[in-house]
Amino acid sequence: MTIIEQMGKNAKVAAAQLLTAGAAKNTALNAIANALEDNAQAIIDANALDIAAGQTAGLTQSLIDRLTLNTERVKAMANGMREVAALPDPVGTTISGSVLQNGLQITKVRVPLGVIGIIYEARPNVTADAAALCLKAGNAVILRGGKEAINSNKAIAVVMRNALQTVGLNPDCIQLIEDTSRQSSTELMGLSEYLDVLIPRGGAGLINAVVQNAKVPVIETGVGNCHAFVDASADLQMAVDIIFNAKTSRPSVCNALETMLVHKNIAPQALPQIYKKLKDKAVELRVCPRAFEIIGGEQDVKLATDEDFYTEFLDYILAVRVVDDLDQAIEHIAKYSSGHSEVIITQDYKNAEQFLQRVDSAAVYVNASTRFTDGGEFGMGAEIGISTQKLHARGPMGLEQLTSMKFVVRGNGQVR
Amino acid sequence: MTIIEQMGKNAKVAAAQLLTAGAAKNTALNAIANALEDNAQAIIDANALDIAAGQTAGLTQSLIDRLTLNTERVKAMANGMREVAALPDPVGTTISGSVLQNGLQITKVRVPLGVIGIIYEARPNVTADAAALCLKAGNAVILRGGKEAINSNKAIAVVMRNALQTVGLNPDCIQLIEDTSRQSSTELMGLSEYLDVLIPRGGAGLINAVVQNAKVPVIETGVGNCHAFVDASADLQMAVDIIFNAKTSRPSVCNALETMLVHKNIAPQALPQIYKKLKDKAVELRVCPRAFEIIGGEQDVKLATDEDFYTEFLDYILAVRVVDDLDQAIEHIAKYSSGHSEVIITQDYKNAEQFLQRVDSAAVYVNASTRFTDGGEFGMGAEIGISTQKLHARGPMGLEQLTSMKFVVRGNGQVR
Predict the structure, then answer these.
(1) pLDDT tens digit sequence for B332-382
(2) What would the pLDDT profile of B100-125 be if each residue is shown by its tens digit?
(3) What's the mean per-residue pLDDT of chain A?
(4) Do the domain assignments include residue B415?
(5) Which of A39, A187, A306, B248 has its CA 20 to 30 A from that of A367?
(6) Is residue B213 domain-shared with residue B262, that is, in the same domain?
(7) Is there a contact between A197 and B391 if contact means CB atoms under 8 Å apart?
(8) A126: closest CA of chain B, how far (Å)
(9) Which chain A residues have a beta carbon less than 8 Å from that of B378?
(10) Do A95 and A13 fall into the same domain?
(11) Is the confidence at residue A381, as pLDDT, over 90?
(12) B416 occurs within a structural domain
C-alpha cells in the first residue's frame, strides 16, 4: 500500500467517525483557530523558506505576494476558522419527509460527502480555509497543495492535526500530501476506492489535467471566462460603470470580466466611452475587426485572435467583439464561455429575459457586475470555490455543497 | 468529426432549443406515446429480429424474456410516456430567492442539465423510458443500448424522432448510437465537449468500465449489494417476513437482498426459521463458519467465500454471516456494501438510530424490506435509475435529479 493509499484508508476511518461527531466539529475548529494564532511564528518561519525558494526560482512578485504569510494573515486564517465554526451545521438537516400509505416514514437527511480531495496551487491559506469547510460539513479531507507553499502547508497542517488530537478528534480528518510531484497528484486522482469527490482549485491547466485523469467524481471550479453584452438599448453610463468594475476591480479573480460583446447599433458611441474609462487602468483591448474600425487607432488596442476569446486573461486585458444582435451574443457565449458568469446590460425587458433564460452559465445577470458571483456576496457564507459544472453544485460552493443526502426509512415490518 | 462527435454537437444544439421549449415537451411526449402505439407492429417486427438473433446466440431464457416486446409491452411504453408528460415540469422552478442589501435580486432557478448520455444493456423499453425522462427535464439525450436489442432500439428511436418532428421539436433531442461496438461506448465516455453527464445503467462490469474510462461526469446507478442485519432483539417473525420478501419477491432487481447478517445471540433461533421460510423458494445459502455450525447440515447450505460477500447475486442465493454485535455488522456493511440499501431488524431504539446514522448508504431502513427503494414507491414518480454515489443524486433518480440550477441576478447598475 502506498503512502497515499494509506492516507485514503485513514481518511475513510476518520470520515466514519465524523458521522457522529456533532458539535465536536465546532470545538475542533475553535481549537484550531487558537492553535494557529499560538503557533503563528512557526508558520511564518516555515513560510520564509517558501518565499526564499520562490525568489530563487524567480516567481513573479504577484505570486510571491500570494504566497506570503504574516501575523495578520495567520490571524485572518484563524478568524476564518471561527467564522466557519459559527455557521449552522448542514449535517443532519431534514430536507423533506413524508409518511407513505403503508405507514413507512421516509425522511431525506443531509449527510457528509465522506472523503474529499482538494488539489490547489500556490496560496497556503487554502490549506486552512478548505480544511475548515470540509471538517464543518463532516468530511475528512486530503489536501494536495502546490510545491511553492509546501513548507507553509506542512506547518499549518501539523498545527491543525495537533489541535484535532487535543479535542479528541481523529487527526486524520485533515491530511496533507507532502509529496508535491506530479505523480502524487495523479495518484490522488485515481483513489476511487477512498475519495468521494475531488475538487481542483486553480487555473485551466490544473482543471483540465484533473478532468482528463480523475477516476473519481470531480467538481470543476474556478475557471471564469466571463462575458458582458452591451445591448443596443443599454444605459451607456451604466455600461461604462459595470464594464469598468467587472474588468478592473480585481482582474486576477475568476468572476472578473474577460470579454465584452457590443451590439453594432450602440458600438460607435459605446466603444470610445468604455475605452476611455478603461484607460484609467491601462487596460489593453483585443478587438474584432468591426471594433477595430471604431477604436483601432487608440493606444493599447490590438486585433484579437480567436484564441483571445477563449482566454481567461486574469489581467488588465479585455477581448471585445461587435455583434449583430442578442442571438449572436448568446451564440458567442455558448461557444467561448467557461460557464461561470455573464451579464447583459440593457433597458429592453424582453432581451433581458431571453438572455437570462438562454445563457447556460452558473450565474446570469442583468445590469450588474459579474464580480458579485461569490459565496459571501450571495449570502452563502464562506465558499470552497465556484463550480462551473452542472452536476451536484453550480456557482459558489458553500457548506451545503460539501454534503450529500440519504433516505432514512422507519417501518414496523412493511414488505412489498 | 466522427459520427458520435457529430451526434454530440447536434445534441448540444437541440439542448439549447429545449431551454425555452416549455409545454411543447409534453405535447411531444404525448405525440411519441401515440406514435409508439400506432407503430407497434413495426417495433414488434424489429424486435423479432433481436429475439431470433438472441436465440441463435444462446441467450438465457430470462434475457430473452427481458428482450421481448409485444403489443402489451409497447402499450406500457406509451403509457409510461403519458405518465411522464403528466408529471410537473421541474424546469423553471424557483428553488430559493432573496434581495440583497444593495438591491440585487438573486433567484436560484432549476434548469436542465443539458446533454445526457445513457449506456444500457438488454432491455429495449429503456430506450423509451429514459428518453421520456430526459426530454421532460429539458435535456437532449444520446442513447447507447446493448447489441442484443439494437433492432428494437432503432425502431423505437425512429418512431420517437419522427414524432418530435411532427410537433416541431428538433429530432436530435433523442439520438441513438447504432454502432454497438465497445469502441462506440468508449467514444461516448470521452465526449467531454458535449456531454454534461453520463449515466450507465447495468451490471457491475458496465458501471466499472464507465467509472474507469469516462472523461465526463458520471452518475453510477444500479449495483445493489443490499444487507439486512437481524439484531439480537429482532421480532423473529418480522425478520423472517422481511428477509423472505427482500430476497425472493424479485431477486433480479438492485434493491433485492444479497447478504443477511445475524447477531450471534439470536442466530441459533433465527437461522433455522429463516432457512425454513427461504426453502419455499429454494434459496441457496452461502454461510460463514459460525452459521454453518447451526444450519450447515441442511440442503442448499454451503460455506461462503469472501468473494460471496462482495457479490450481487441477482438470484435465489443469499450470503449469511453471524456477527458479534451492531459494530461488527456496521463494519461488514462499510466494507462489502455497494451503498444502495440496508436494513436493521430490531426492537432496540438505540441500535436502530445508530444503524441509521452510521451506515453510509443511499437508503437505510429500520424494520422494512429493502425492496421499497424505488422512485415510484418513494413518491418521486418514474425513475431513471438508483444512484449509489454521493455526488449530485443519491437513491432513486427522478426528474429533479436530471436537472441542474443556475443563479439569476437582476440589478440596476450595481457594482462591487
Answers:
(1) 999 999 999 999 999 999 999 999 999 999 999 999 999 999 998 998 888
(2) 999 999 999 999 999 999 999 878 99
(3) 96
(4) no
(5) A306
(6) no
(7) yes
(8) 23
(9) 106, 407
(10) yes
(11) no
(12) no
CB B399 within 8 A of CB B137: yes
DSSP for B315-379 reads SSEEEEEEESSHHHHHHHHHHH--SSEEEEE-S-HHHHHHHHHH--SSEEEEEE-GGG-STTTTT
- Indicate the residue of A334, A364, A411 with minimum beta-carbon distance to B367: A411
CB < 8 Å from B in window 303-342 of A = 334
The nearest alpha carbon in chain B to A211 belongs to B215
Indicate the residue type of A267: A
Here the ipTM equals 0.94
Structure confidence by residue, pLDDT tens digits, A32-55: 999 999 999 999 999 999 999 999
Do A390 and B377 count as a contact with CB atoms less than 8 A apart? no
At A123 the pLDDT is 87
What's the length of chain A?
416
Whether A356 has its CB under 8 Å from any CB of chain B: the answer is yes
User: Do A125 and A242 share a domain, yes or no?
Assistant: no
Using a CB–CB cutoff of 8 Å, tell me whether A364 touches chain B.
yes
Closest residue in B to A97 (Cα) is B378
Q: Where does the pLDDT of residue A121 fall: very low under 50, low under 70, confident under 90, or very high at 90 and above?
A: confident
Kindly list the residues from chain B whose CB atom is less than 8 angstroms away from the CB atom of residue A371: 415-416
User: Which residues does chain A have within 8 Å of residue B113's beta carbon, measured at their own beta carbons?
Assistant: 390-391
CB pair distance less than 8 Å for A371 and B113: no
List CB contacts (< 8 A) between A215 and chain B: 211-212
Q: Provide the CATH number for the domain around residue B333.
A: 3.40.309.10
Distance (Å) from the alpha carbon of B46 to chain A's nearest alpha carbon = 35
C-alpha cell at A117: 480531495
Pull the grid cell for residue B262: 445475524
DSSP H helical segments within A192-347, as ranges? 204-213, 236-248, 267-279, 289-295, 306-310, 326-336
Rounded to 10°, the helix B24-38/B71-86 angle is 170
Whose grid coordinates read 443519491? B394
Distance CA A330, CA B310 (A): 50
The answer for residues whose C-beta is within 8 angstroms of residue B414's C-beta and 6 or more apart is: A367, A368, A369, A372, B102, B103, B104
Q: B383: closest CA among B255, B257, B258, B256? A: B255
Angstroms from B357 CA to nearest CA on chain A: 7
A210 and A239, same domain (yes or no): no
Handedness of CA A302, A308, A309, A313 (dihedral sign): negative
Tell me: do A208 and A300 sit in the same domain: no
Spell out which residues of chain B touch residue A410, defining contact as CB-CB under 8 Å: 352, 356, 365-368
What CATH number does residue A197 fall under? 3.40.605.10
Residues 164 through 193 of chain B touching chain A, CB cutoff 8 Å: 192
Distance from CA of B256 to the nearest CA of A (A): 11
In what order do the strands lie in the sheet containing B105-112?
A301-303, A284-287, A317-323, A257-263, A226-230, A341-345, A363-368, B403-414, B105-112, B94-99
Evaluate whether residue A268 is within a structural domain.
yes
Q: Is A101 near chain B, with CB under 8 Å?
A: no
CB pairs under 8 A between A and B: 199
- Look at residue A416 and tell me if it is in a domain: no
Residues A289 and A399 in one domain: no
DSSP conformation class of A400: G
Nearest to B162 by CA among B79, B41, B286, B39: B39
Look at B416 and A218 and tell me if their CB atoms are within 8 Å. Answer: no
Whether B153 and B239 map to the same domain: the answer is no
What residues in B contact A364, CB-CB < 8 Å?
A: 406-409
Provide the residue range defining the domain that includes B57: 3-221+384-410
Residue keyed to cell 446507478: B221
- Domains in chain B: how many in total? 2
B107 & B248 share domain? no
* pLDDT for B394: 96
Q: In what order do the strands lie in the sheet with B115-120?
A: B174-176, B140-144, B115-120, B197-201
